[in-house]
Amino acid sequence: MKKPQPIRSELYERSSCTFFDDLHTMMISLSSLMMISQVFRLKRSPIIDIDDPIKLERAIEVPFEGQTIKEAWSFRAYESFMAMVENRATDIVEFTVYPPLETSIRDIANLHYIIQSVLFQQKIIGSGFSNYFENNRHKIESKYGSNTTSWPADWNFSRVIRNAYSHGGNINFSNPSALPVSWKSITYSPSDNGKSIHEDIFLPEILELLRDMQNHL
Asked: What does each C-alpha distance from 168 to 119, 123, 171 come to in angstroms?
């Protein structure tokens, strides 16, 4: 399968993105995990013997397939890795977005990918998301009150996602009479207790949800 043509870029800048540090940490962690997994899978480094910066930049590309958002978001890790190695901050995280695919992105030749269902990868994403949620929860409570039913719908939904991440990625309503929460085409209620959010949510969904959340801060 040939690599599709991108349909747009998604740019996140430190100056305007309130979740930039959590996003950057997630992407460095996931990209590092991808590179290490490739070393073990291929018995060699995917970037070995590459001394041309342009070739090196092209080699470190990490795509993620959305679950509800039917797109593939691809992160080029070169600049972020170089900033980390040189002990400096980076101010931009950019994704290339590919259209919905007829088959899985993992079938594209010479393109390394992150598998959505791997628990460790979901824990990396969950940790970054939960950190952002908890660091900004007080702002939402000060604007909308402590009663979560009065929160914006995406924040109330995010509360359930944050809670799921702390329960192994599974929906966990403690109140059987709690009202459903919705975001985009996803709805969760107490009847979904025990359901894995990983069937609906991966990195593209988390990025879209984070972006919606910051609009209310």
From this structure: 9, 8, 9
Please check whether residues 158 and 179 belong to one and the same domain. yes
Give residue 98's pLDDT: 87
Q: Is the pLDDT of residue 111 over 90?
A: no
The residue from 107, 135, 158 where one domain ends is 107
Q: Where do the DSSP E strands lie in the chain?
A: 8-13, 61-65, 72-76, 92-98, 181-183, 186-188
| Residue pLDDT, tens place only, 165-198 | 999 999 999 999 999 999 999 999 999 999 999 9
Tell whether 135 and 70 lie within a shared domain: no
Question: Could you tell me the residue range of the domain that residue 67 belongs to?
Answer: 8-107
- Which residues contact residue 175 at a Cβ distance below 8 angstroms, ignoring those fewer than 6 apart? 190
SS3 label, residue 143: helix
